[in-house]
Amino acid sequence: HSQSATNGKQGSHPLTMGVSVYRKAKANTYVNPQHERMVSFCVKNYQQLNGKTYKWRDKPMCIIAIKSAGTAVDWTILDNCEVANPDGAGYAYVRGDEVVIRKGFFDNETMLKALDNERIDQTETEIMFHFRIATHGKVAPATCHPFPMSENRKALCELDTTASMAVAHNGVIPFMPKDKMLSDTMQYILLYLAPL
Predict the structure, then answer these.
(1) Helices 75-84 and 108-117, interaxial angle, to 10°?
(2) Cα gap 108→104, rounded to integer Å
(3) Residue in 40, 19, 56 with CA at minimum distance from that of residue 166
(4) Region 45-55: what's the mean pLDDT?
(5) How far is 178 from 57, CA to CA, in rounded Å?
(6) I need a labelling partner for 53 at 20 to 30 A (CA). Which of 83, 91, 108, 174 fits?
(7) pTM of this prediction?
(8) Torsion of CA 111, 116, 120, 125, to 10 degrees
(9) What does the DSSP 8-state code read for residue 176?
(10) Taking residues 178-183, what's their average pLDDT?
(11) Residues in Cβ contact with 55 at an 8 Å cutoff, skipping those fewer than 6 apart
């Protein structure tokens, strides 16, 4: 489900729907048996309600790119991501015992300047990038990924924050409540992931 900027790990379970959880120097795919059943149920019913069979790849999706430690950031790949998914971007990386989250970028030049201001070794630091294509919620800096794992609506909208875990998603999560501001991913975090 996710594009790797270098040799990033990719989830193999078909029901992860591209949810990447970034925690303490590890990028992995979030899988929870309880939510697998719920997601499977939602996907099945979403297809039936629309009267048409969809594969997730048939829909536009956000892009998650993991830049592995020990490799340089490939801005050619990230520039292609920006062109394909122009609805905002962000990144996360681990610093000590916390994950740094920066988001709300609508061009890679601005994101590169922010990354340069981090004063980190960009080659040796593993970095998760996310490029959004909006399917739900407003196109705004606050709805860009990654998000902190939080039950606090305001915390999900922060553009510059730290957390114990960051979440990025690509795909569509059906049956989330309609909300003009919050995306389906934001609602899924608030209602299902963070309360775990």
Answers:
(1) 130
(2) 11
(3) 19
(4) 41
(5) 23
(6) 83
(7) 0.72
(8) 40
(9) P
(10) 86
(11) none
Burial class (CB in 10 A: 0-12, 13-18, 19+), 196: exposed
Strand partners, 77: none
Q: What is the DSSP letter of 77?
A: H
Q: For 77-135, what is each residue's pLDDT tens digit?
A: 999 999 989 999 999 999 999 999 999 999 999 999 999 999 999 999 999 999 998 88
Q: Which residues contact 33 (CB under 8 A, 6 or more apart)?
A: none
Closest listed residue to residue 40, CA positions, set 21, 17, 62: 17
Residues whose CB is less than 8 angstroms from the CB of residue 147 and which lie 6 or more positions away in sequence, other chains included: 101, 156, 166, 167, 168, 185, 186, 189
Burial class from Cβ neighbours inside 10 Å (0-12, 13-18, 19+) for residue 162 reads: middle
Pair of tokens at residue 18: 């591209």
Q: Could you tell me where the DSSP H helices lie in the chain? A: 33-50, 75-84, 108-117, 153-157, 184-188
Amino acid found at 120: I
CB 37 within 8 A of CB 96: no
Q: What are the structure tokens assigned to 1, written together?
A: 């489900």
DSSP-derived letter for residue 177 is P
